[in-house]
Amino acid sequence: MTDALTLFDDVVPAETPVVNRLLQVRTVYAEPAAAASPRGRQVLARFPDAELVEVPSHWQIPDLHGNEGNVERWVRVKTETLVLGVKKSVSVRPNGRSADFIAPSTANGCAMACAYCYVPRRKGYANPITVFTNIDQITRAVQRHVARQGVKPEPNECDPFDWVYDLGENSDCSVDALVSDNIADLVATFRTLPTAKASFATKYVNRQLLELDPQGRTRVRFSLMPDADAKLLDVRTSRVDERIAAIDDFVAAGYEVHLNFSPVVLREGWEADWTALLQQLDDELSDAAKAQAATEVIMLTHNEQLHEVNLGWHPQAEEVLWRPELQQPKVSQNGMLNVRYRNDVKRAGVDRIQQLIAQHAPWLRVRYAF
Ligand code: SF4
């Protein structure tokens, strides 16, 4: 092990150390090229007390990945560990619902621990944040892809005018922005792209993002659910009230702010609690926020392996997430056994929440619901 800062004494950039309950980093596992890169050095400078451990690949860290037995250490691993890697494939992929395209990830893994989250499954379950340090390559790939698309020919459910690129498929960008300037660089990149817009969903309020001057070219989707669900399921995230209180400030700072009702969990009392949430939004949001708002609605999908893991650390969550009497199996594209609400249950749930939105927050356009 090497002390991160002594290794790079002569080149350490000036960075303010991160002080945050989510990230009390003691160890940074890094591919050598990632640690030596400017972005890697920035991350190391933000965590000056961390020890640096070189690893051949960010995919192969036996202490961290693929280890369901880490359940009890899960949150500690997320808090105390970061990984630095170089992203090999920087391709843009088509999407179509939430965004037109998925931008190459600038991170994967998350310091938070939502019980339903599919992100940890990519590297096993105790999956801390991996930061990809080849940000210049990633922003260039995005710029080239945007240039090839030209002007969006017609409106779709992603956006009426712009090609929308999702930045946060495998991480929470608001937390990633504490760790490095990758998100700041992407916000700055999209500021210069008149035909495209960045987008990410988040459950964390990072007020440093208010300084980035997005000029309307980045859409933040604050992810909301009734507080009773969030207290049980959204482990380590910002509280729902804090997310709602941030919306006006993000609009004022130049973001487009949408909402992400996801996942909608059907359980006793869900309609009353969603009604209260919609009424709170109607009471608290400014006219400016309402005028530009839209939401997506996504009913819960769960997963058998994740269910088994959760029983080891958070069995109360499974009482609302694992409802075989309401759910049907669905084998996902990557072969995982997922479950989702039965077709009739899901259809009734989607219809009902749309009725509630129309009744209590009629200004809130639903981009899609499924
Ligand atoms: S904040 Fe998002 S990425 Fe992080 S654990 Fe929750 S759902 Fe997963």
Automatic annotation (TrEMBL):
What name is this protein filed under? Lyase
The GO terms this record gives for MF are:
4 iron, 4 sulfur cluster binding; DNA photolyase activity; S-adenosyl-L-methionine binding
Q: Which residues form a coiled coil?
A: none
Q: Which InterPro entries match?
A: rSAM, rSAM_sf, SPL, Uncharacterised_Spl-rel
Its GO CC terms are: endospore-forming forespore
- Which top-rank group of organisms is this from? Bacteria
Which keywords has UniProt assigned to this entry? Lyase
Lineage start: Bacteria, Bacillati, Actinomycetota, Actinomycetes, Geodermatophilales
PANTHER family reported in the protein's UniProt record: SPORE PHOTOPRODUCT LYASE, SPORE PHOTOPRODUCT LYASE-RELATED
Species of origin reads Modestobacter italicus (strain DSM 44449 / CECT 9708 / BC 501)
